[in-house]
Design brief:
Radius of gyration: 20 Å
CATH class of the largest domain: Alpha Beta
CATH architecture of the largest domain: 3-Layer(aba) Sandwich
CATH superfamily of the largest domain: P-loop containing nucleotide triphosphate hydrolases
Structural class: alpha/beta
Strand order of the largest sheet: 2-3-1-4-7
Shape: globular
Order of helices and strands: EHEHHHHEHEHEEHEH
Strand content: 5-15%
CATH topology of the largest domain: Rossmann fold
Largest sheet: 5 strands, parallel
Distance between the termini: 16 Å
Length: 262
């Protein structure tokens, strides 16, 4: 089917509550518009990995002056490298290592560096922006770089459906295959069908932690989306729950809503 949508896009955001069903919708955008998925999870893994592989054995508190990090040139001198990715990885590690949230200003630096590697274009932004200040930073950045955010795909799903689906999710700790106790269960012995390892429930897939993430979306991400919309970025709301979940139905549900924007 031919869709009345642009042939080329600059960048698109996919958002939704944790567990809403974003990945199948991201896959549609990647395939239909020849975009690349840019995930905040991959961003943090990259920069934390760069720093971890650097094998720095000192105390990271020496880079903190009580209110902020010391200047980057001093960080480079203490680390013995001017590699920006290692310096950024250290800044993220400082907070992650203490069990703290990485503040927006550091997340924005990590995002900008990763986005720059991709030419500030051709991306499906997954997991960013999540806060108002991240949205403000993103719009300033794309304007500065002469690119754009074409639209947002907001995957909608009810809290109860998300909780029901996510609490029954199981993952193989060996090969990473994901199961669902109702829709795609492991073996009767609770083993992975691929490698035979006993599957587990992720520590953050409990109802208490899921409800906390759902509330965070309402408190932080919805204001970020309102800011984008108020500044000219249209939003297409697509259903995260389909009565018949097939690739064809997922694609149709996404493309029909995008088509309405044009």
């Amino acid at each position: 089917m031919d869709w009345n949508v642009p042939d080329e896009l600059s960048n698109v955001i996919v958002t939704g509550k944790s567990g809403a069903g974003k990945q199948p919708r991201i896959d549609v955008l990647v395939d239909e518009f020849e975009l690349e998925q840019l995930s905040t999870g991959n961003i943090f893994r990259k920069y934390l990995g760069k720093f971890d592989n650097f094998d720095y054995e000192g105390d990271l508190d020496e880079f903190w002056n009580g209110d902020d990090f010391i200047p980057d040139n001093e960080i480079a001198e203490k680390l013995g490298t001017e590699d920006e990715s290692i310096i950024l990885g250290m800044k993220a590690k400082y907070f992650v290592g203490k069990g703290l949230f990485v503040p927006d200003r550091i997340t924005n630096q990590l995002f900008k560096s990763y986005f720059k590697e991709r030419g500030f274009s051709g991306q499906v932004l997954d997991g960013y922006p999540r806060t108002l200040s991240q949205s403000e930073f993103l719009l300033e950045l794309v304007e500065e770089k002469g690119t754009a955010i074409d639209f947002v795909v907001w995957v909608e799903n009810s809290d109860e459906l998300i909780i029901e689906r996510t609490t029954k999710r199981r993952i193989c700790p060996e090969c990473g295959k994901v199961y669902h106790l109702k829709y795609d269960p492991p073996t009767e012995e609770n083993k992975c069908k691929e490698c035979g390892t006993e599957v587990i429930q992720r520590s953050d897939d409990t109802e208490e932690k899921i409800r906390s993430r759902l509330q965070e979306f309402k408190d932080k991400t919805i204001p970020a989306l309102k800011y984008l919309e108020e500044n000219g970025v249209p939003i297409a709301k697509v259903p995260g729950h389909l009565e018949e979940f097939t690739p064809e139905n997922v694609k149709r549900s996404v493309m029909e809503e995008i088509e309405k924007l044009f």
